[in-house]
Amino acid sequence: MPQPSQFSVAPMMDWTDRHYRYFARLLNPETVLYTEMVTTGALIHGDTDRFLAYDRSEHPLVLQLGGSNPAELAQCARMAEARGFDAVNLNVGCPSDRVQNNMIGACLMAHPQLVSDCLAAMQAAVDIPVTIKHRIGIDDQDGEASLHEFVNTVQASGCSTFIVHARKALLQGLSPKQNREVPPLIYDRVYRLKAAFPALDIIINGGIASTEASFEHLQHVDGVMIGRAAYQTPWILAELPGGLAHRQTGHAADIDLRLRVAREFLAYVEREHAQGTRVWAMLRHILGLFHAQKGGRVFRRVLSTEAVRPDTSPAVFARAIDTVEALQYNEAS
């Protein structure tokens, strides 16, 4: 049976904020969670407390940084360590124009020595692990030899954990959304990377949407990072090792666990709302909790139409949960 630490949830802009992470932790107490990418400039000059805020239940938790200045990345790594993060990760995979213009993300794959220098500076600054997340290539620099050359240069920094999105990034002509869907997934290339660098921890990412697929990947690499599936159909987290679904089986137990998670998250929503957090800022993350379950569409419709209002109270969420429970009870009877 794979170890829970072999599984993680990908950093996703606008999705993996502290509210989503709290929800994800209710589903699986052990899967590694990542923050959204935070740029060094935002962390150093912006609202540091907001960017570094998290609940203690979120551990193990990794801060993902975007940047290309070794001194600034080292400074931010120290900030992460001081705030109690379990590791820090360098983003070398984001393909958006906005970050490219600031030498952040996937464009750095064209500058492996700079990436190595950045990681070396971060590691010299902290005692927590420093890792990297990157693509299998960019633009016309997408051959297997180029990928191996990149990893070989970067590993000289001392970095030993490489999270590899099994798609190349096309930095000209495709939007970030298209870059998550259009370039083909080449899982075999990541498998061969592991074979070529057996001493490195290679974690695969990209298009992984089931527990079965996750276990298959683990026959070839050291870990699996799940992205959109963990957000859109979040019960997959409960089905991974360490998750809630491993503790009971059967349809009734499954829906009971989902309802329990919903009510635990309701308590969180009530606490946060009392402190001024808008209800939709939290509930937008859990629309898929009852995916493919009786009452799931009603649950999603109630939240997506009523919880979006600025003056919404947690009572809307409580009513949506009660509706699912009632429909399930009627089905059972």
UniProtKB/TrEMBL annotation:
CDD domains: DUS_like_FMN. Its EC number is 1.3.1.91. FMN binds at residues 11-13, 64, 133, 165, 205-207, 227-228. The keyword Translocase does not apply. Residues 9-305 form the DUS-like FMN-binding domain. It is an enzyme of class 1 (oxidoreductase). It comes from the Bacteria. Keywords: Flavoprotein, FMN, NADP, Oxidoreductase, RNA-binding, tRNA processing, tRNA-binding. It catalyses: 5,6-dihydrouridine(20) in tRNA + NADP(+) = uridine(20) in tRNA + NADPH + H(+); 5,6-dihydrouridine(20) in tRNA + NAD(+) = uridine(20) in tRNA + NADH + H(+); 5,6-dihydrouridine(20a) in tRNA + NAD(+) = uridine(20a) in tRNA + NADH + H(+); 5,6-dihydrouridine(20a) in tRNA + NADP(+) = uridine(20a) in tRNA + NADPH + H(+). InterPro entries: Aldolase_TIM, DUS-like_FMN-bd, DUS_fam, DusA, tRNA_hU_synthase_CS. The keyword NADP applies. This is tRNA-dihydrouridine(20/20a) synthase. The gene is dusA.
